[in-house]
Design a protein that fits this description.
A 4-stranded parallel sheet has the order 2-1-3-4, sandwiched between helices. Strands 5-6-7-8 form a 4-stranded antiparallel sheet, with helices on one face. The model is unreliable at 13-37, 104-115 and 130-137 (pLDDT under 50). The protein is built from 8 helices and 8 strands; from the N terminus they run H-E-H-E-H-H-E-H-E-H-E-E-E-E-H-H. By secondary structure, it is α/β, with parallel strands linked by helices. It is globular and about 60 Å long.
């Protein structure tokens, strides 16, 4: 889903122990005016991811809460979900965290003194993943009887644990990655990991296309449909300019944008909209 999308699930502003920080880099230079005066913050991003997770938990409720697991990256995020979802029968599930040391490792965010950490390579991070018992079981496992595992906004580090879990549970558990943004992952732990995550099927995608190569365009895909590239005119709904089986690359967006047809009516309407906008400046 779009970065920081507001689903309107949490009516009241949730309290958060996290510091607000600018996340403009995550929007790939998008229009910050859509994010409000404060812009995109860590709190808004966390809220968006948590709201999306809640919608999926509600969707799978017929399975029974004991068979659904919402897995967050750390305990700070997991605790926030536990607090907000507590007592709501429509969102019963197991709430867990991959990094169960989150509160200690993020002491600065909880009001304590933040310790300076030494930079670690990939091998060191992998060793930490396995250090608790020295085996491939790792420090984190899904709760027993989990049939649907929802991993919320996992990053490259969390994908290491998710790869192991996928290998452990096999086809007996449906693993869903929410806002994983795998297209931005440049390096995987191994070739096997790359093959695994490339095999995940994007069931829903809505986001901006390359604005440098296709200004004003967005991409959309709803399983089992095809990928759609659409242009948002100044007036009216988005207009489809290309459809294909796979996700559009930057070059494919540029080609579709260069060859799209714009009617005279559309050109006139957009010119009028621009003129009106100039009057109110």
């Amino acid at each position: 889903m779009p970065v920081g999308a507001n689903f309107g699930v949490e009516k009241k502003k949730a309290s958060s122990s996290r510091r607000k920080s600018s996340l403009a880099s995550l929007t790939d230079g998008g229009d910050s005016s859509m994010e409000g005066e404060e812009g995109l913050t860590m709190e808004k991003l966390d809220t968006s991811n948590r709201e999306l997770a809640r919608l999926f938990v509600e969707m799978f409720q017929p399975l029974g809460g004991q068979h659904i697991s919402a897995v967050f990256n750390d305990e700070i995020l997991a605790d926030e979900a536990r607090k907000l979802w507590s007592g709501d029968l429509s969102v019963e599930c197991n709430i867990a965290a991959i990094d169960r040391k989150g509160k200690r490792s993020r002491g600065g965010l909880m009001g304590g003194k933040k310790k300076k950490k030494k930079a670690k390579g990939f091998a060191s991070k992998m060793a930490e993943e396995l250090e608790d018992d020295g085996s491939l079981s790792g420090p984190f496992n899904l709760p027993k009887d989990t049939e649907v595992a929802l991993f919320v906004a996992p990053g490259p580090k969390e994908l290491i644990a998710i790869e192991r879990i996928c290998n452990d549970v096999g086809m007996g558990t449906c693993v869903i990655l929410l806002n994983a943004r795998l297209s931005r992952v440049e390096k995987y732990a191994s070739d096997d990991a790359r093959k695994l995550f490339e095999s995940f099927e994007p069931v829903w995608f809505l986001g901006a296309a390359s604005q440098e190569k296709s200004p004003g365009c967005l991409m959309h895909r709803a399983y089992p449909g095809k990928w759609v590239l659409a242009r948002k005119p100044k007036i009216g709904a988005p207009k489809t300019i290309a459809i294909q089986d796979d996700m559009f690359t930057g070059d494919e967006c540029a080609e579709a944008y260069a060859t799209m047809e714009v009617s005279e009516i559309e050109k006139t309407s957009e010119k009028l909209a621009m003129n009106v906008a100039e009057w109110f400046k």
